[in-house]
Design goal:
Helix content is 4%, strand content 59%. It is mainly beta. The radius of gyration is 16 Å and the shape is globular. The two termini are 29 Å apart. The N terminus is likely disordered. Belongs to the glycosyl hydrolase 11 (cellulase G) family.
Length: 228
């Protein structure tokens, strides 16, 4: 995955099906991705992330305000979504629709540096099929739901800082939903209790992701989501 960090600090390859590049285009338009491509389009205080690792039949559209849509049927990995530069303790209040088959997620997704951490907060998913082995770190319940916590390791993989070995943190909702509130600090606090420390926040987005599990099928689906 090709990536340029939102803060403009580093150009690198991103290891999972999530990534972005700061792009100059500000106008609303639908993008059909047929090769590796990233787009980041600011609008009304939000950033639009649109990336593919070479899959076909993927359409992502940057709507007004905090809205975006996606339609896909592809064996290639992709991600599109909206969020904020800098990340940190953000509250996502969102609504919309998400329907998918095959490996993929509807999640809040972000990166930190020092330490270098890639993290997911999954609200819904199709096939839960990570490409790295997960280590269970227990579960927790907050007013927003009950979540299973996992940690995984990427060894000598591309990241926003180049090729590195780094940790992935995961919160996975036990009862899937589409729409509601995701307060990132509540997850950060729970992770800290498990010695899962974060660093300086780079960016965070609400995103849909599809990808191909090694040796397995691709994904298909549609989503129409709005950050309120």
């Amino acid at each position: 995955m090709v990536q340029i960090s939102l803060l403009g600090l580093t150009s690198a390859l991103l290891p999972t099906a999530l990534g972005l590049v700061i792009g100059p285009a500000l106008q609303e338009r639908e993008i059909e991705i047929t090769s590796a491509e990233d787009k980041l389009q600011p609008r009304q205080g939000y950033y639009f992330q649109n990336w593919s690792e070479g899959g076909s039949n993927i359409r992502c559209n940057n709507g007004g305000g905090g809205s975006f849509t996606a339609n896909w049927n592809s064996k290639g990995g992709f991600v599109c979504g909206k969020g904020w530069q800098g990340g940190g303790a953000r509250t996502f209040r969102y609504s919309g629709t998400y329907n998918a088959t095959g490996p993929g997620y509807l999640a809040v997704y972000g990166w930190t540096q020092n330490p270098l951490i890639e993290y997911y907060i999954l609200d819904s998913h199709a096939d839960l099929a990570p490409n790295e082995p997960w280590t269970s770190k227990g579960n927790f319940t907050i007013d927003e739901g009950t979540f299973e916590v996992y940690q995984s390791t990427r060894v000598n993989k591309p990241s926003i800082e180049g090729t590195r070995t780094f940790q992935q943190y995961w919160s996975v909702r036990t009862e899937k939903r589409v729409g509601g509130t995701i307060t990132t600090k509540k997850h950060f606090d729970e992770w800290a209790k498990r010695n899962m420390r974060l660093g300086n926040h780079n960016y965070v987005v609400l995103a849909v992701e599809g990808y191909t599990k090694t040796g397995g099928p691709g994904s298909s689906g549609s989503a129409s989501l709005t950050i309120n």
